[in-house]
Amino acid sequence: MTSTPHIQLEALHILARALAEGEFRARAVLGRACAAVAEGFGFERVGIVRYLPASTTLIPFVGHGLTDAERAALPAALPVSRFGAFERALTAGAAIFVEDPASEEQLPEEIAREFGIGSFVIVPLLSEGRCLGFMTCDQRGIRFAREPAETELLSTFGILIAAFLERAIEHGELRRLNELKSQFIAVASHELRTPVAAIYGALQTLNARESELTAEKGMVLRRMLTHQAERLYELVENLLDLSRVEANALRIEPVEIDVRKELEAVVAALDESVSVQVEAGLRAVVDPHAFDRIVSNLLVNAIRHGAPPVTLSATRTSEELVVTCEDRGAGVASDFVGSLFERFTRGATRSSEGAGLGLAIAQVYARAHGGAIHYEPAEPHGARFRLTLPIATDLILF
After folding, report:
1. What is the pTM (predicted TM-score) of this model?
2. What mean pLDDT is predicted for residues 69-89?
3. pLDDT exceeds 60 at position 2
4. Cβ atoms within 10 A of the Cβ of 213, count?
5. Is the pLDDT of residue 332 over 80?
6. Dihedral angle at the C-alpha atoms of 345, 348, 354, 360, nearest 10 degrees?
7. How many CB atoms lie under 10 A from the CB of residue 311?
8. pLDDT value at residue 263
9. d(Cα 332, Cα 375) in Å, to the nearest integer?
């Protein structure tokens, strides 16, 4: 492999200029940096992944040189424990070169095969002792040699990228919190007011005219009270979840559960007709609170915006638990799929209820657990949400 010192210096200049000018469009700047690293060091693909230490999870962030098929195949999140090379770089606190990815389980075999990975370099992005992510560099399917001095220079790139990434994260966090504050005020003024007003009105009617109401009208009022109270409870739970997310207070504590019993308990709490299709005796090691919050939010979404029959199913491998929630409604409009998991967003559906938080919070819990939720259209019609959670295999009892 050949490299060009002039272009390497230009890549450093791009990062230094971004830091000096206070430019915070992280994906755009880091995308240019990846391109410069690729050209300067002779790499075909260069990517940056975020690292979430609380859940030891890797999240793809930006990349250069990926094909459309490779971008589509990138997992939403992966536990760092599956990647020996990332753990080595994290421990070393410096860039590492791996000539043979098959040695010492540096990468999962299926990922090395699917992406055609030969030799590669992993650069930890460190800022004041904290790892914010990693830069990955490789030639598609090619084995190559790398001079130690070049690997050391890539560590310098990592320090600059980490400094920029930290500032971009802080800037983005402030902007996001301001947006969330405005969104929260809007939710509190509308979504909370609606069920509270309905409950207050029904109680006023019962208190003032209960003796005049027929049994049928009294029952209608009580059903409405129950429905609005459930709606209020769900919204408060979601807002509490949101506050835990913002305070970084989500804690994942896996224990062994009976998957079928856990899913049946979630369904029973919703008091809705849902088919649970899980093999008896299926067990997995997951956090039960996170699991319940994810599944209940998926079910509420299917019941509210889809159509019956609603089905829950689950399978597992030695490494993953997969739970699928499927309904037979109209599915999700193609132009809304990209916004499905964003906070305070709602598509055009037959229901006007909900604050647009359920799927966003479900995804946050899934990622905190090292997993993810994916949407796909169901056949012949409907919506299918697939939850994938890594299993703490060292705790599984076979």
Report:
1. 0.51
2. 83
3. no
4. 14
5. yes
6. -40
7. 18
8. 95
9. 9
- 155-184 burial: b if 16+ Cβ within 10 Å, else e: bebbbbbbbbbbbbbeeeeeeeeeebeebb
Query: Homologous superfamily of 251-398 in CATH?
Result: Histidine kinase-like ATPase, C-terminal domain (3.30.565.10)
What's the pLDDT band for 257 if we cut at 50, 70, 90?
very high
Nearest Cα residue to 117 out of 102, 130, 132, 128 = 102
| pLDDT value at residue 137 | 94
Report the DSSP beta bridge partners of residue 138: 45, 120
On the question of pLDDT at 248 being above 70, the answer is: no
- 373 has pLDDT over 60: yes
Q: Which residues contact 366 (CB under 8 A, 6 or more apart)?
A: 77, 290, 294, 372, 373, 387, 388, 389
Q: How far apart are CA 310 and CA 304, in angstroms?
A: 11
Cα separations in angstroms, 356 against 216, 310, 342, 376: 34, 20, 8, 19
Half-sphere exposure of 346 (CA within 13 A, CB side): 17
Radius of gyration of the chain (CA): 25
**CATH 3.30.565.10, the chain: domain bounds:** 251-398
Residues of the chain with CATH 3.30.450.40: 5-172
Q: Which residues contact 209 (CB under 8 A, 6 or more apart)?
A: none
Q: Which residues pair with 125 in a beta bridge?
A: 133
CA distances to 133, 199, 253 from 54, rounded to whole Å, are: 13, 40, 12
Q: How far is CA 314 from CA 277, 281, 297, in A?
A: 7, 12, 16
If we measure between CA atoms, which residue out of 133, 125, 172, 119 comes closest to residue 52? 133
Average pLDDT of 333-359? Answer: 70
Q: How confident is the model at residue 393 (pLDDT cuts 50, 70, 90)?
A: very low
Q: Which CATH number fits domain 5-172: 2.40.128.190, 3.30.450.40, 3.90.70.10, 3.40.190.10?
A: 3.30.450.40
Over 80: is that where the pLDDT of 23 sits?
no
Cα–Cα distance for residue pair 317/252, rounded to 1 Å: 20
**Backbone φ and ψ of 379, nearest 5°:** -110, 140
Q: What is the pLDDT of residue 392?
A: 54
